[in-house]
Protein backbone atom coordinates (compact mmCIF):
# COMPACT_ATOMS: atom_id res chain seq x y z
CA UNK A 1 0.00 0.00 0.00
CA UNK A 2 1.47 3.33 -1.08
CA UNK A 3 1.13 6.01 1.55
CA UNK A 4 1.53 9.66 0.68
CA UNK A 5 2.73 11.74 3.56
CA UNK A 6 0.95 14.86 4.78
CA UNK A 7 2.07 18.03 3.03
CA UNK A 8 4.09 19.15 6.06
CA UNK A 9 6.23 16.06 5.64
CA UNK A 10 6.27 15.94 1.85
CA UNK A 11 8.94 18.60 1.59
CA UNK A 12 10.95 17.19 4.46
CA UNK A 13 14.53 16.59 3.40
CA UNK A 14 16.23 13.36 4.42
CA UNK A 15 19.86 14.23 5.11
CA UNK A 16 20.48 11.92 8.05
CA UNK A 17 19.16 8.53 9.18
CA UNK A 18 17.52 10.19 12.20
CA UNK A 19 15.24 12.24 9.94
CA UNK A 20 14.17 9.16 8.00
CA UNK A 21 13.77 7.10 11.17
CA UNK A 22 11.14 9.49 12.54
CA UNK A 23 8.87 8.82 9.58
CA UNK A 24 9.73 5.11 9.31
CA UNK A 25 9.03 4.35 12.98
CA UNK A 26 5.61 6.00 12.68
CA UNK A 27 4.88 4.13 9.46
CA UNK A 28 5.86 0.66 10.75
CA UNK A 29 4.66 1.21 14.32
CA UNK A 30 4.97 -1.41 17.06
CA UNK A 31 4.68 -4.89 15.59
CA UNK A 32 5.64 -8.50 16.22
CA UNK A 33 6.55 -9.16 12.56
CA UNK A 34 9.24 -7.91 10.24
CA UNK A 35 8.06 -5.16 7.92
CA UNK A 36 10.14 -4.21 4.91
CA UNK A 37 9.38 -0.73 3.61
CA UNK A 38 10.88 1.60 1.05
CA UNK A 39 11.03 5.37 1.45
CA UNK A 40 10.86 7.11 -1.92
CA UNK A 41 12.87 10.30 -2.42
CA UNK A 42 12.81 12.98 -5.08
CA UNK A 43 15.91 14.49 -6.70
CA UNK A 44 16.34 16.93 -3.77
CA UNK A 45 16.08 14.20 -1.14
CA UNK A 46 12.54 15.12 -0.10
CA UNK A 47 10.20 12.30 0.86
CA UNK A 48 7.70 11.37 -1.85
CA UNK A 49 6.12 8.55 0.13
CA UNK A 50 6.60 5.28 1.94
CA UNK A 51 5.58 1.87 0.60
CA UNK A 52 5.30 -1.51 2.35
CA UNK A 53 7.19 -4.08 0.29
CA UNK A 54 6.51 -7.10 2.49
CA UNK A 55 5.41 -8.26 5.91
CA UNK A 56 7.20 -11.34 7.13
CA UNK A 57 7.46 -13.37 10.28
CA UNK A 58 9.14 -12.65 13.59
CA UNK A 59 12.55 -13.29 12.05
CA UNK A 60 12.41 -12.90 8.28
CA UNK A 61 10.83 -10.84 5.52
CA UNK A 62 10.99 -11.67 1.82
CA UNK A 63 12.88 -9.23 -0.40
CA UNK A 64 12.86 -9.18 -4.19
CA UNK A 65 14.39 -6.28 -6.14
CA UNK A 66 11.32 -6.10 -8.38
CA UNK A 67 9.05 -5.46 -5.39
CA UNK A 68 11.47 -2.87 -3.97
CA UNK A 69 11.87 -0.88 -7.18
CA UNK A 70 8.33 -1.10 -8.56
CA UNK A 71 6.97 1.72 -6.36
CA UNK A 72 10.13 3.76 -6.99
CA UNK A 73 9.70 3.52 -10.74
CA UNK A 74 5.96 4.18 -10.61
CA UNK A 75 6.49 7.24 -8.39
CA UNK A 76 9.41 8.47 -10.49
CA UNK A 77 11.63 8.44 -7.41
CA UNK A 78 15.22 9.57 -7.81
CA UNK A 79 16.51 7.52 -4.85
CA UNK A 80 15.27 5.29 -2.06
CA UNK A 81 15.90 4.20 1.49
CA UNK A 82 15.21 0.59 2.40
CA UNK A 83 14.10 -0.10 5.96
CA UNK A 84 13.02 -3.06 8.01
CA UNK A 85 12.46 -3.71 11.67
CA UNK A 86 13.77 -6.44 13.93
CA UNK A 87 10.95 -7.31 16.37
CA UNK A 88 13.58 -8.78 18.71
CA UNK A 89 14.76 -5.21 19.34
CA UNK A 90 18.32 -6.01 18.23
CA UNK A 91 19.17 -3.74 15.30
CA UNK A 92 22.38 -5.57 14.36
CA UNK A 93 22.37 -6.73 10.69
CA UNK A 94 22.47 -10.41 9.81
CA UNK A 95 24.48 -11.83 6.92
CA UNK A 96 21.19 -12.02 5.00
CA UNK A 97 20.63 -8.30 5.67
CA UNK A 98 24.09 -7.54 4.27
CA UNK A 99 23.50 -9.68 1.16
CA UNK A 100 20.10 -8.08 0.57
CA UNK A 101 21.61 -4.60 0.86
CA UNK A 102 24.31 -5.51 -1.65
CA UNK A 103 21.75 -6.91 -4.14
CA UNK A 104 19.39 -3.93 -3.84
CA UNK A 105 22.29 -1.46 -4.19
CA UNK A 106 23.47 -3.25 -7.37
CA UNK A 107 19.95 -3.22 -8.82
CA UNK A 108 19.64 0.48 -7.97
CA UNK A 109 22.83 1.25 -9.88
CA UNK A 110 21.47 -0.53 -12.95
CA UNK A 111 18.16 1.34 -12.72
CA UNK A 112 19.78 4.71 -11.86
CA UNK A 113 17.75 4.80 -8.63
CA UNK A 114 20.42 4.68 -5.93
CA UNK A 115 19.94 3.03 -2.58
CA UNK A 116 20.79 5.88 -0.20
CA UNK A 117 20.60 3.77 2.97
CA UNK A 118 19.24 0.59 4.48
CA UNK A 119 18.07 1.15 8.02
CA UNK A 120 17.27 -1.57 10.55
CA UNK A 121 14.96 -0.49 13.36
CA UNK A 122 15.07 -2.11 16.77
CA UNK A 123 15.43 -0.59 20.21
CA UNK A 124 17.99 1.58 18.45
CA UNK A 125 18.83 1.52 14.77
CA UNK A 126 21.54 0.43 12.35
CA UNK A 127 22.36 2.47 9.25
CA UNK A 128 24.29 0.70 6.50
CA UNK A 129 25.39 4.09 5.21
CA UNK A 130 26.72 5.26 8.58
CA UNK A 131 28.51 1.93 8.99
CA UNK A 132 30.27 2.42 5.63
CA UNK A 133 28.49 -0.36 3.72
CA UNK A 134 26.97 2.18 1.31
CA UNK A 135 28.69 5.22 -0.08
Overview of the molecule:
By secondary structure, the chain is an alpha+beta fold. It has helices at residues 7-10, 17-28, 65-74, 95-111; strands at 2-3, 35-41, 47-55, 79-85, 115-121, 125-127. A hairpin with a 3-residue loop joins β5 (115-121) and β6. The protein is globular and about 35 Å long. The relative contact order is 0.18.
Short description:
By secondary structure, the chain is of the alpha+beta class.
- N- and C-termini, Cα separation: 29 Å
Uncertain runs with pLDDT below 50, 5 residues or more?
Answer: 6-10
| Fraction of residues in β-strands | 25-35%
- The sequence of SSEs as H and E is EHHEEHEHEE
Write the layout of secondary structure elements.
Elements: E1 2-3, H1 7-10, H2 17-28, E2 35-41, E3 47-55, H3 65-74, E4 79-85, H4 95-111, E5 115-121, E6 125-127
Give descriptors for this structure:
single chain, 135 residues, alpha+beta, 6-stranded mixed beta sheet, 4 helices, 32% helix, 26% strand
Amino acid sequence: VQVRLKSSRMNRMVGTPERAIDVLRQFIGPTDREHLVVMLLDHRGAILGVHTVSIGTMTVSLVHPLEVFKPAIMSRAAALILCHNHPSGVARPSSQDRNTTRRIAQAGKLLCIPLVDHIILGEGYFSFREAGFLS
